[in-house]
Please model this.
Amino acid sequence: MKVSDILRVKGNTLFTITPDDLLAEAATTMAEKDIGSLVVMEHGDLVGMLTFREVIVAIVANGGQVGTTLVRKAMDDAPVTCTLETDLDEIRRIMLERHARYMPVMDKRMLMGVISFYDVAKAVVDSQNFENKMLKAYIRDWPAEDESKTG
Model:
């Protein structure tokens, strides 16, 4: 299974923000849309990733306040990315190694979507459920032995 398969099921709704937007606006958008990340874009290029983790770190660093902090100050400016052709097993490995809960999907310089750790886990579970269903159907339809040969 590839990243393109996950995005096909998930859909391609994207939420972005610029590095010069206020962190408070970003947090509000994340809360209103019930999303855990925003892709940070500038002049059509991916320049960072903002997740709830970065928001919380920025709030703590600012004495419990968001204040006038800009997204630029809080964002991860070197997010790990993948392509549409990246294999699911590779995504799992990268996400675990880098502790990345969200990963932008790029096609050259174009942002194609974002996959989350949840999306990956759901794809794995769905795939396993499908395999289990197929195996059970195969076993249920197992051909009976010809009794004349066993005698």
